[in-house]
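Methods: example folding runs. The two proteins below were folded one after another, and each record is reproduced exactly as written to the output file, sequence line first and structure-token line second.
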Amino acid sequence: MTNTQALPTTALGPDGTRVGVQGYGAMGISEFYGDSDLAESRATLERALELGVTLFDTADVYGAGHNEEFLRDFVRANRENIVLATKFGIVRKAEDPAYRGTDNSPEYIRSAVDASLRRLGIDVIDLYYMHRKQPGVPVEDTAGVLGELVAAGKVKQIGLSEVTGAELRAAHAVHPIAAVQSEWSLFSRDVENTVVPAAADLGITFVPYSPLGRGFLTGAAPIGELPEGDIRRTMPRFTGDNADRNAALLAPLRAIAEARGLTPAQVALAWVHARSAVHGLPVVPIPGTRSRTRVAENIAAATVELTADELATLEPIAGQVAGNRYADMNFTAVGRE
């Protein structure tokens, strides 16, 4: 497939790879946000690629392998135009759907990469992330194992997710890290404390996930209209008084959107894209959607430039957000917040 719309590109890691400045997060196709129309989801992937998206992001844990399997035909059909990222490190239990553990052992990593390659039907993974750090396992050891996968030709570049600035530096000293992925949005800016400066210093690309605050920044109803089984029903920012307080924070976002003829989601994404110039590093957000209309809307935001006054108006929002990102903050790196 040939791209019909030029999306600006940026660097992904030190090997010369270029990707569109906005990527695509595929997680929601398989679970967490209610049922999916798989035909529309596939059409959405095709539309994203057509509009210039090249970085497509998945993980072995999404749908317990379903997400990688679903992407298989799409990736294989468009392999030369796609930079495929997947992840390892989060483990689940079939008998306990709510369980989330971590495993960074060398044996697990080696088995996980082979399993992902089989599900995806490809010979090499373009970008392989440690999804979460396992407590007690030095990140330097994990980087060493990932470096072995690069040497073996199973992985082209490696990344880390939800780490601290110190962990990022320690891993990069063992093997070059191409990208770091963490939540970063108008609602979540703690990464700017140590992780973003470390990435900028080391020349590492930052890949913000949930750049729309898991949909909160689109202006959609926080909780009442979420389907049963939607993971956001368990997240503190979407529940009780927190939901009402956070919804009130969207007023300046809505005002800017109305004045500019944009949607709140486009303003929120434009803010994330602006972080690249503010902090001096490549930034490639990966919003997820299962709608062709929404993916086109999201991609259009990549070329929206907010004014200094608009950025100043949005500046206070993150400091006023009520509630943690997760109910169990042990699921993030110690010191990450």
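Second run, written to the same file directly after the first:
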Amino acid sequence: MTDTDGWRFDGLRALFINCTLKKSPQTSNTQGLIDISRAIMDKHGVRSSVLRAVDHDIATGVWPDMTEHGWASDAWPGIHEQVMAADILVLAGPIWLGDNSSVMKRVIERLYANSSVLNSAGQYAYYGRVGGCLITGNEDGVKHCAMNILYSLQHLGYTIPPQADSGWIGEAGPGPSYLDPESGGLENDFTNRNTTFMTWNLMHLAKLLKEAGGIPAHGNQRSEWDAGCRFDFENPDYR
């Protein structure tokens, strides 16, 4: 047995966004998987929080504040403050028709809405943060959903550690969900192992990045590129 009591990640903050279709206080199977990861983080000093996206009036669109584009209200600007306060972001959600939920798609679109914001070093603002994902369902599609989420996060500037995803599905076809007593989900070694590995990899990489001051600010500064710096890029002369 490996002693993990000495590992501390005090000073790190994690945000789990649950993209279930069920409003609180309905039972969310996705929340069951979040609870496993969150318990490990909390035990080792990470300050974690969970936000159930469907409980909030998040407008549709790809602008930071959609009230400036015809919407009467938009909860996203306040949610985005929580995103930016977190060193670790875990997007979690169910599978429907083999794909991510509509709520997950909306959250990713709104993350994208803020992707042009720059940090104090002139990099895209999500640099220096790590991302992962958790997927639940009773139909196939865990890896497909994870690929979509993790690609989206890295494209926006998040750093993705090894094995940054985990999920649970039952047998093919409609059947028990993760938290149903007959599902066997809570005892599934594959899911428990992958969720644990994902959690530790997120904490390790987030700590490394924070102690290093983020991703080195050279060769990736949008502000410098716009100012004319080309970081050794040379346009080939084909004449």
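Comment on the second run: The chain has a mean pLDDT of 94.
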